Amino acid sequence: MSSTQRNDAPSVAVPSPLVATLREQTLLVLEVNHQHFEDVSTMSVPAQLALAAIYRDAFAVLDAVSWTPAPPRAATITVPLSTGHLTQLHTRHADLLHTNLDRLTTRTRTAAIDAAIAADRISADHLTHLFTITTPTT
């Protein structure tokens, strides 16, 4: 393990119905943060390390759940979910909910818009469930 690798991500048993959503939303975390790499050489070292952590955490999740959308082979999959990655997923959750509010107000609702709303609702519900299983109870 190199000195820049983090090992603070607790392993979480993710139920197989949530795995596809976790994969999809983790890929979107990478996509949303891609533009920062255009300026990586001009970033401060702390900013570079913060960006590296976002990618490192996402890659660890994708390595655990598989990069390809194959059906899970087990009832649960153990996934390293760092606090930083959960923060990124909370942002994705908020984006899903906001996007659906925008779609609901579309004047011309189509079957494609309704399908997108339904898919986003399922993803948001899956993330909500994921947050409940990763939040420590006192």
Description:
This protein has helices at 16-32, 45-65, 83-104, 111-134, and strands spanning 11-15, 76-80. The chain is built from four helices and two strands, in the order E-H-H-E-H-H. Helix 1 (16-32) packs antiparallel against helix 2 (45-65) and helix 3 (83-104) runs antiparallel to helix 4. Residues 1-5 have low confidence and may be disordered. The chain is mainly α. The chain is 61% helix and 7% strand. The protein has a two-stranded antiparallel sheet. The two termini are 33 Å apart.
Write a short abstract of this structure:
With 138 residues, the chain is mainly α. It has helices spanning 16-32, 45-65, 83-104, 111-134, and strands at residues 11-15, 76-80.
The parts where pLDDT drops under 50 for at least 5 residues are: 1-5
* Gyration radius, rounded: 17 Å
| Pattern of helices and strands | EHHEHH
Q: Let me know the average pLDDT.
A: 86
- Portion of residues in helices? 55-70%
Share of residues in strands? 5-15%
Rounded to the nearest angstrom, the distance between the terminal CA atoms is 33 Å
Number of helices: 4
Structural class: mainly alpha
Total number of beta strands: 2
Main sheet makeup: 2 strands, antiparallel
Widest β-sheet, arrangement of strands: 1-2
Structural shape: globular
